[in-house]
Design goal:
heterodimer; A: about 450 residues; alpha+beta; Heat Shock Protein 90; 2 domains; five-stranded mixed β-sheet; two-stranded antiparallel ribbon; 11 helices; about 10% strand; elongated; B: about 130 residues; alpha/beta; Rossmann fold; five-stranded parallel β-sheet; 4 helices; about 20% strand
């Protein structure tokens, strides 16, 4: 099959989508043209008092119905077309549409007075549109054919070889045998058509070149961003190595492998271990973010949210028990549609939210986890009776390293990276995250927080 | 008592692990690079090997483990990793990674002792 795809476009899905959209747009436009033509044929007198002869009326009706029929066929065909440069594709459909339209327009022009017809100007539209989506040589070929055919018709009518269809009521007398007029219209028409094709083609080419440069720049920026992320995760990893050694020693000492400890010393060492834990948690979060940013694709499998939640809760339970915080899980799902995603990343996200709900809670608090669904989404809501988030901090909580202003007084350690990781994971799954404070569990003392995650269901099951 | 080889290029990790294992009565031998590690395993025939995944190269721990298995040494191997489950790298014992268990750094003494005891129990029974 004739390859019409420009070299630069082969790998860009956007190119095909644009062509598809344009095709559909022209199909819709053509229905409008059919309606207008039909109106003109049935009520010609509303157009400047025109009277159509019976041959003209019949011919125009036949042309209009042909347009309608080929438009219906195109409309039907377009949905089956694949974005394959080597097979019949949307671009070939564009060419087919163009050829059909040019033939139909030429016939309409012929039956509305050819050299006298103002509809001649509509060829300009076709030439511009053609130049924007088709290779130059095809548009030039079309232009030459149009000019030759029009020349043939006007010459034929001038010498009375073919009949002329004058539109009664539009012009007071026929012009098709006025030598100067026919010559002037033909010359201007040709000049106009070729000039339009030349200009439109140049503009289209410049646009293409620009677009290509833009796409190349985007690729370069993305590559640089990846380099940066690799560099960051390299450095952070190097920092983790000595920290891990420090932490291992602290554990060793604190677990009395080296003998008994003085109480004051032990207390400070516990403090030191907690701070080094905090640093390791921070490093792990940074590495997680880098990994997310470095990966273009992630695992896409059908995910069972119940088992992921169960695992996340199991991990969190140790901390919850230590603090006397009650975890309550309510599954209110009925249909249990699956979602598509990466179970590991989802577990990180849910663990992060649940551990926050425990960390920023008071002794003997409550964390309520509700699993719900609406028509299109799975909804996980984690609400707590904790310290809440001040109103002025709510808009910043997803920013890297941001920590709400009330955390310092509360005295909990953290890196301020957790929610930013959660948000990235949720957005990778085309979901949304929303945080409210106070929550419905608010008490007189503590406002509490509600985190709501919405994840869309697998489409085919809806 | 069982003999355990620790192969890691971080002297503090080697020291901390040795202290923990020696306090439990194990006989510990150490090496700080893959070449020496290979040598002590071949010469002293330990009952268990603890191997850092990343020494000079990012994956030379893996290569050393594969080398042991190719030599038909079926001594249980515990691998130290610093990037693992927390980052979504789910290691599992396989042909590519012929080890028996993983311990993530920083090393928690209880976890280490627990894993060592379990692996030795299984291996000695066999």
């Amino acid at each position: 099959m004739f390859n019409l795809v420009p070299l630069w476009a082969k790998h860009y899905e956007e190119f095909w989508l644009t062509i598809r959209k344009r095709n559909l747009w022209f199909i819709k436009l053509r229905y409008g043209a059919v309606a207008m033509l039909l109106f003109f044929i049935v009520f010609p007198k509303y157009f400047l008092g025109i009277v159509l002869g019976s041959t003209q009326q019949t011919a125009l009706l036949i042309i209009t119905f042909s347009i309608l029929i080929y438009n219906l066929i195109f409309h039907y065909l377009r949905q089956f077309l694949k974005h394959d440069a080597d097979k019949f594709n949307p671009l070939h459909l564009s060419v087919l549409q163009m050829i059909s339209d040019l033939i139909a327009l030429m016939l309409v022009v012929y039956f509305t007075g050819s050299v006298e017809s103002p509809l001649l100007l509509f060829f300009v539209i076709h030439m511009i549109v053609g130049s924007l989506i088709l290779p130059g040589f095809i548009v030039y070929t079309f232009a030459v054919i149009i000019v030759l055919v029009f020349w043939g018709i006007t010459v034929g009518e001038y010498y009375s070889i073919i009949p002329h269809y004058h539109i009664t009521g539009f012009l007071s007398y026929p012009l098709h045998q006025q030598f100067n007029y026919v010559l002037a219209i033909n010359a201007s028409f040709e000049f106009l058509i070729f000039l339009i094709v030349l200009i439109a083609n140049r503009m289209a080419n410049q646009l293409y070149v620009r677009e290509q440069q833009l796409l190349e720049s985007i690729d370069k920026i993305n590559a640089a961003e990846k380099e940066k992320q690799k560099y960051i995760s390299g450095i952070v990893h190097e920092i983790k190595t000595p920290l891990a050694a420090v932490h291992s020693y602290l554990d060793l000492v604190l677990q009395k492998f080296l003998g008994p400890l003085d109480e004051v010393v032990e207390e400070k060492l516990i403090r030191a271990r907690r701070r080094s834990e905090e640093a390791i948690e921070l490093i792990n979060n940074v590495l997680k973010i880098s990994k997310l940013k470095l990966e273009d694709s992630f695992n896409q499998e059908e995910v069972d949210i119940a088992s992921i939640l169960a695992r996340a809760i199991k991990v969190a339970k140790v901390n919850a028990d230590a603090k006397g915080v009650k975890l309550s899980l309510n599954n209110r799902r009925k249909n249990k549609y699956k979602i598509l995603g990466d179970p590991f990343l989802l577990q990180i996200a849910l663990s992060n939210i649940i551990s926050n709900a425990i960390k920023y809670n008071h002794m003997d608090g409550l964390v309520e986890i509700n699993v719900e669904e609406d028509d299109e989404n799975l909804i996980v809501k984690v609400c707590d009776t904790g310290i809440g988030i001040p109103k002025e901090d709510l808009q910043n909580i997803f920013t890297d390293f941001y920590r709400a202003s009330n955390i310092k007084q509360f005295g909990a350690e953290g890196s301020g990276l957790g929610l930013s990781v959660v948000k990235q994971i949720v957005e990778r799954h085309n979901g949304t995250i929303d945080i409210q404070s106070p929550s419905h569990l608010a008490t007189n003392k503590y406002p509490g927080t509600c985190v709501k995650i919405t994840l869309p269901f697998l489409k085919k099951q809806i | 008592m069982a003999k355990i080889a620790i192969i890691d290029d971080d002297p503090d990790i080697v020291d901390a692990s040795s202290l923990v294992l020696q306090s439990k009565g194990y006989d510990v031998i150490t090496a700080s690079n893959p070449t020496d590690g290979y040598k002590i395993v071949m010469e002293q025939n330990p009952d268990l090997i603890i191997l850092d995944v990343m020494m000079i190269e990012p994956d030379d721990g893996f290569f050393l483990a594969q080398k042991f298995r190719k030599m038909n040494i079926d001594t249980p191997i515990i691998m130290y990793t610093s990037v693992s489950k927390s980052l979504g790298m789910e290691f599992g014992a396989s042909e590519m990674v012929p080890v028996d268990d993983f311990v993530e750094k920083p090393i928690s003494p209880e976890t280490l002792v627990d894993k060592v005891e379990k692996l030795l129990a299984i291996h000695l029974k066999e």
